[in-house]
Amino acid sequence: MIYACVPLVEQTLSPHPPLISISGISQGFELLFGVQDFLSLSQKNDTELNTKLNQLPDLLLQACPFGTLLDANLQNSLDSINFASVTHSQKQPAWKVGTYKGKPQVSISITEKVKSMQYDKQDIADTWQVVGTVTCKCDLEGIMPNVTISLSLPTNGSPLQDILVHPCVTSLDSAILTSSSIDAMDDSAFSGPYKFPLTPPLESFNLCYYTSQVPVPPILGFYQMKEEEIQVKITVNLKLHESVKNNFEFCEAHIPFYNRGPITHVEYKVSFGQLEVFREKSSLVWIIGQKFPKSMEINLSGTVTFGAKSHEKQSFDEICIGGTAYLKLHFRILDYTLTGCYADQHSVQVFASGKPKISTHRKLISSDYYIWNSKAPAPVTYGSLLLSESLCLLSESGKVRNKITSRPMRPSGNSR
Amino acid sequence: MGPLSRETWAQRLAAFRASPSAFMAGPEGEDLGRDLLSELRSDKLSEQTKVSLLALSLEYPAQLWPDATAAEAAATSLLDTLVLLPPRPSALRRPLLLAATTALVAGDALGPTSEASRRLLPLLLGLASGRDLGRGFGPASEQRPLQATACECLRELESCKPGLLGGCLGLLRGLLGQEGPVQPLSLLLALALRNTLVIQARARARAGLQGLLMAGDTPSGGDPWNWALAEEGDARLQPQAPSWPAAEEECGLAVLEPTPEEARELRAAVAQLLDTSYLLTPVAQAQLLWLLGWALRGLRGQTPVLFKPQLVRLLGTAQLTLLHAVLALKAAFGEALFTAQDEALLLRRLTVAAQHPALPLPAHLFHLHCLLSFPENWPLGPTGEEAAPLLLGPRLCRGLLPSLLHDPMALLARLHLLCLLCAEDEEKEEKGQDWSPRHYLEELLAGLRQRAALDGGPRASATLCFQASYLVVQCLATQPTVLTPLTHGLARLYRARPVLAPHFVDLLDRVGPELGEPLRVALRQEVVSRPGRDEALRWHLQILAEVADGNAQSATLGFLGAAAAHCTDWGLQQALLRVCRALLRAGVGGGLADLLQALARQWEDPDGRDHARLYYILLAHLAGPKLGVALGPSPAAPALASSLVAENQGFAAVLMVQEAPAPIRLSVGPHRAAGPGPVLQLHVEVLEPAYSLELRFRVEGQVYAPLGAVHVPCLCPGRPCRPLLLPLQPRRPAPTRLDVRALYTTPTGLTCHAHLPPLPVNFADLFLPFPQAPEGDKLGFFEELWDSCLPKGAESRLWCPLGPQGLEALVSRHLEPFVVVAQPPTSYHIAIRLPPDSRLLLRLEAAQEDGVPVALRTDDWAVLPLAGDYLRGLSAAV
Description:
heterodimer; A: mainly beta; 4-stranded antiparallel beta sheet; globular; B: alpha+beta; 7 domains; 6-stranded antiparallel beta sheet
């Protein structure tokens, strides 16, 4: 399915006007994002998708009569068709259809995703980054209830940066606006509390997105893989940082082997957890479980033997050629954020009738958490090269260091 | 057609939607619009079906009601349907309003004389004002949405007739201040305000702006809509979809000089709109800011500071359209609204948005584009040129640099930025700084090539590598420090993976000489330095056909000689011959002749052998320029994919006749009434030299005998040519047209064929005088002719109107050679011979001031109407 949007441009097209000078470009973007959101939202099966597809023409008529976009939120347009009988009163925001009736409650959840690229090499810095999303649902009576939500950090928390807020936020502190990952971090960085005065819409919305540069990655590790004819020798070491909450919902290390045949034989030793072998998919999954052991450090070593490669079954990976390989960590920790960011009940001010019930949630999820084979070249981003003297994209050197904590480290984006 | 069921309608609509124009051209097309209107009032159809009918009329008004009359009738019918709706909630009212508006606007029926317009406008304005319009207009619960829809309809009317609502500004302000729906009213007011300002600036008239803005909610003095203002604005005043204009004069509001009171009132109106703008959806907020920003730009007494309170709120959002609107304000007001610090902040927010992990890739790409076209306060380069903004220093850019892990689109967009940084950094190079964009660029390209070189790798990675190389050449063509390693890298890539040859040929065809020249040399070396025997031979030959020229002849010929033995199949032989052809064209001589002779002996395939021999003969017998023509691409024939055809194109061009647009102009000169038969005098002009011109004529309707061709040895532009004489042999005395074709040779040696516009032969072109009458008795001679016409022929009398110059001038101009008896200025007897054997006799007697009665006789009745037309046309021709 392809949706396209063609903006009206009433001027000569030669020479091409820059896209930036045409208002219809961003309007078209928003419409397509809106269609995408509408179709993907709570879409469970084909029937539901078909229902939504059938609704689209009517919705577009509602959302852009005469071709001018009035609201990119198509769910709102759908609701406004259904809410037609509700009497609106003055100063009703156009993005809010109807009003809420019922018990007042406010729910705030903070989800942080941590990504990382770890190389275990002297000349390439490891990188990691936290991306946070704060999602809110405010069920409050009245047309325009005013709410202020504050996000706070503990004393040793990592400042939030690159904050992008929802349009319903009515004003912003300039410190929030200027705090950005482009700058070098220092002690003067604004560390909250981050106050967001807002008039909430009816639906659940993303109050803000942020990034942050935490001082250390939650799990630091190395992965060494050496090819020996039809088999490879692997060694993995993972260490959970002491400051991180050692209580996972799950924690797994996925070790895929690309551009090889199916696994025929595995000999291994794990200091902790279990190893599952997916022969046809040529991959191993190390199930670490809910907790790291007291030492916080775990190891896996073994030898994997492969059968003949069959071209049909296995897709080609253009990065993992030869020794270039990675392991990817998947984990989730509930009621925890890496930055320390939290919103407690007292930090929420609601200027509306009735005292609302306030609930808050936090979680940390891994996302693109890679540990590259340190015995072979690995793809790097510019940020990883800043400490190294030689700039090369696929570093040939791979000298292993015994003390992994002494590796060059750098949260991505923070560059000097 | 009777009432249709829901299913029938569904089928009909599906058929229409599948191909509206085909449906409308079909048997049912004519009735569709009419049926649709009548079905809207039928009780049988559900509201849902009716809504879908209305939706169709909104999408295809021009097909359903193609002209103003039909549109007017449709709008009237829709309004009637609206009025007749029972006073209970109905889903039809809003779409009916939209449909009536659309019909009027799309059918171009909107205007002061249109009855439907006169009904619709007060209705819309009444609904928009929230006035009680009586029970026909639905229950109270529907008033609010109807009010919003009425505003949308009015906005559409205002955009199509800018200035129409110029008289309603005060009313709209009042509504916005009270209880009206904020978004539709804000957008309507902003548009009407913008249009009024622009029209007043254009007309250099100040029709009491203050009055317009202040007028209460009951507009005084008749209709609130302003057709006169709309008339002024109608000359397409400004694009209705806002964009920031490239040319300065597009936004010249500076001529408008509002009085201090007017300026204050205008400020108040704008502030009112901005203050409530947070109640609008983000997309509507953006539209409002675009409209107001460009309406107020340069207007005296209006400081852009009004916008300032909105900026922090807008800059903080993740909304693409709001950030874009801020950029529009930046472009409109520049330093007046954004200090250098503000500019820096805006750039930082853009930079953040261009890489924020929470935003989707398309948003990243758009923001990157915004960075490259950033409207700076003080741009350094020429306007319109893409360049990294001055304040976007290396530090800000770090996160925006491309890496191999990026998606291809993101990689290319970021690479563009990196190239611009390299271009800027040219002077600072070679200082051993740790941050060298050029060095990073080199490494990135090397990485891309490494990926493209992977055996069995996906095509996409090869494509990406060449796209990136092309982009780098486009941006950094003047930097040898970048191009040299790029050239070497590409040559190495070819060595690693010759199967990429088509990509290389494509790249060479597209890049300029900066990379093209060195890359050709490098690739040629790469190819000829390797013995040609492996599987890559066909790729090597393909590359060589592209890069072979007069240089490194012996190496190239050596390679070809060695390769010839391995060219065992037809395809490889043709590939090798293509290289020979390239060498022939480059003027390579001796060694090539030996090679071609060897090929002609050695190969078994007759086609390859014949081609080799043909090339050898051409090489041995044709001089350089002629060889170039023989092998050069034909101007007329489109490029063909088949190698065989491509091979032969050059020869074919020389040997075949080419169809060409005529560079020859042919016209008929003055009539020569002499000799035994009529002769057409032709004048020829050419736009470019033509040799051995042959003109061929064909008579339409075969009224003359076939005509012979006319030959001209040589024609040059600007050099006059003697008139060409074309004798005609009529079979009947009748005018006709001659179909003309030209065959000629161009200076480049091609033979061309052209079809020229037809030449008219007029009735008068056939006139011949009678042989001289006996000197003494001219009148008797005439009378004899006159009498001989009857009874076989015909006689007629008609009135020949005369121009101001009178009869004498008319005769001397047109009929002089045919006069037998003359008694100037009032009486002439004229005898005309019409080949093959007809005669036409005229008596012009007793001329009066404005005309002369003509008696005419002819022995051929078919001539009579022609003669009548001719005589009546004479006075006009004087």
